[in-house]
Amino acid sequence: MAELRLPEPICRLLCQRGFGDIEPAKRYLRPRLDHLHSPALLRDMDVAVERLVRAVHIGETILLHGDYDVDGICSTTILMRTLRAVGGKPVPFIPRRLEDGYDLSMAGVRAAIDARAAVLVTCDCGTNAVEPAAAARAAGIDVIISDHHLPSGPLPAALAVLNAKRPGCEYPDKDLAAAGVAFKLALAVTNALGANEDIVYKLLDLVALATIADIAPLRGENRVLSRVGLKVLNETTNVGLRALIRAAGLEHTRITAGRVGFVLAPRLNAVGRLGHALRGVELLTTENEAEANALAREFEEMNRRRQELDRDTLSEASRHVDAMDLDNTFGVVIAEQGWHAGVVGIVASRLLEEVCRPVILVALDGAHGRGSGRSIPAFDLHAGLAECRQHLVRFGGHRMAAGITIETARVDDFRARFEEVARERLTPDDLVPDLRVDLEIDLGDANADLESLLRHFEPFGSGNATPVLVARGVRVEGAPRVVGPGHLKVRLTGQGASLEAIGWGMAGRAAELTPNTPVDVAFRLERDTYNGAVKLQARLADFRS
């Protein structure tokens, strides 16, 4: 407190988050670009840069092969814009989710051959694409892998594999999203060519968008990239991003990590789920205002369709869950013919909130299926799937999220094995949702000054959660009100203070709150802006009498 000249609640929170020493605390509160590690620390970076510089100098075509989510779209765009700016000849390619499947596949190799590319650079994929990389190499194409997924086996025999998670890579930060890796590669190539670094730093809006959308931990370098990138995003000169922001109704709103995750990212993801993700690259690379507006409107419509599919699929999946004995189920696997493969990942996330167990949903299409899984902190999903590999055609992903391809005939065997693995690695206590509280404060301390100081902890997300505060023995003033589609609104009083509170989706708990009866409340303090008016409010996380 003495050194930083900050109030006790803020300093307690810093210490609890591991920043008990002064210098790390200062770096956390004021992340700067000079805190980033050198791109050269990534293994194979020198080889990748030398090859791309040569391709630029002699005018060779470079195929950029992205993935169809926000991270893949943005990674592809970062390298597209950079290589174009330094005189390269990049050509984008993103597979169609339903026709081509996930990852670098033969579809991508054929695209590189058709484009007469001398170099193929993957963006957010390729770490496990052993056979396609070999096929590209046999066709005389140099392959550079730019990715962040965990290796599931031997690495491809590529010219370079840029992935902090690969064996033998001593890069200090293992949490980079693919857009972070693409940013490092773009910066290194730009420097090698003697071009202006600002070309790349102006793309930090895309790095932040992708890092937050991919739920990468917002700590270390990701914190720097997303914090600075959000500032760039709020003043972006990217024509397509501006159109997307306008179409989403955020034109006059401060864009936070939450608004990226819940408003902007779903619109970009929708085009990869229901259409062709290459349209996302077209949006983010266009300089034509009319084209950008047309694409943004198209994405809005796709997002509406995606939301309808989400609701229908969640309803069907919930019926399966209702028929389960959850007390004796440690891992949930649900497969259904006719589900859309593009939405099962989103629905798995929603279902996870209900069941608090690792969830895998599989969209079956005849004899084959594609699935997506989400996990709880106590269960490493990628490692769990590795124990089930004999039942899968392929799998890939992270600790908390992964995708699979499976034969329909193997689903029952896979479900049984996945349950065995989950049961081995989890305890019943792991399956109970918990609410972790950061600070206990008096209601009077939940004021505008505290909210303003808490903003220095932003951006909030995975690995850097919004602080949860607790005020004990406060009272509800008047009767609780139900507002909107099932939300609860109350006014809290105590310690001479008064604060409005809202509980999203908590209308069913209104009867638990009796006027003037003491309650303990857990909440997140936030600034609410409505019709131009700004006020402080508590977003309820839980309460008990």
Overall description:
The protein is of the alpha/beta class. The chain folds into three domains: 35-298, inorganic pyrophosphatase (n-terminal core) (Alpha-Beta Complex), CATH 3.90.1640.30; 324-431, Diaminopimelate Epimerase, Chain A, domain 1; 439-544, OB fold (Dihydrolipoamide Acetyltransferase, E2P). The chain has helices spanning 8-16, 22-29, 45-58, 70-85, 97-100, 106-114, 130-138, 178-192, 198-201, 204-213, 220-234, 239-247, 257-274, 278-285, 289-322, 344-355, 381-386, 411-425, 448-454, and strands spanning 61-66, 89-93, 119-123, 142-146, 160-162, 332-337, 359-365, 368-374, 394-397, 401-407, 439-440, 469-483, 487-494, 497-503, 518-530, 533-544. A five-stranded parallel sheet has the order 2-1-3-4-5, sandwiched between helices. A five-stranded mixed sheet has the order 6-7-8-10-9, with helices on both faces. The protein has a five-stranded mixed barrel with strand order 12-13-14-16-15. α4 links the parallel β1 and β2. The mean pLDDT is 94.
Q: What is the count of β-strands?
A: 16
Instruction: Output the strand order for the largest sheet.
Output: 2-1-3-4-5
Q: How much strand?
A: 15-25%
**Helicity, as a percent range:** 40-55%
The first-level CATH class name of the largest domain: Alpha Beta
Domain module tally:
3
| Class based on secondary structure composition and strand pairing | alpha/beta
Low-confidence stretches: none
The largest pleated sheet is described as:
5 strands, parallel
Task: Report the radius of gyration as a whole number of Å.
Answer: 24 Å
